[in-house]
Amino acid sequence: DPSSQFYRSSLFVSVMNYVNRKQSHMSVKQNNNRLSLTVRDITSVSQAIALFEKIRSYHAQAPTSTEKS
What pTM, to 2 d.p., does this model score? Predict the structure, then answer.
């Protein structure tokens, strides 16, 4: 649901920011109200897990909207 609070969550914003920084390796596409993340050059499950750990770490380090700049 495009109007879902999830799309305004700090996690979603962090993931999208990460994807935008890594556009040469990944992209997000919308099709029939569903988002899909495409990642290039991932050849194993362990590489995919490592990538998601990087994204999770990026989110953990990102300032929250309640923090002052």
Answer: 0.69
